[in-house]
Amino acid sequence: MAASKNLFLASLLLAILLREVGDNLKSELFEKFAFPREQYLYSVMFIVLMVVMAATAQCPEGKLDIAVVETGRTVAGKREWKVTVTNICFCTQSDLVLNCPDFSAAELIDHAVFRQVDHGLCLVRGGAPIYGEENVTFKYAADRQTRFSYSSSTISCS
Fold this sequence. Notes:
Blueprint: H1 2-24, H2 27-32, H3 37-56, E1 64-75, E2 78-87, E3 92-99, E4 114-118, E5 121-124, E6 135-142, E7 149-156
Antiparallel strand pairs: 1-2, 2-6, 3-5, 3-7, 4-5
Helix pairs in contact: 1-3
């Protein structure tokens, strides 16, 4: 939400600045290059509109970065893995479910952060919103790394 609001404000500021520049230019400059003032202003408005529309368009599904790295520690005789899920979309994603085939952990993971909801499906942050560019991180210990991938989410751009 904050990213699209910032983009909108930046677009508005750009439109105001371009209008000021256009108003301060002498009309002979427009006449010399055969570029009427109205066409210039309509072009600026069109560009600003396209930027705003692109900023508010919904992100495609699965716009996440999922990084899994080995920490070098062992827990209960198993290797520890650190998982960072980053919402790389500027829109908010909630009810995020990841594919987590054959996931098992040697120790309990905080269910508010990550939990298996069905065989091979895991819910991130209990379904709570993950805002644009926000990370959710958790650790688990297992014999081998789980290959996490996107399954589903609810995307909300406002």
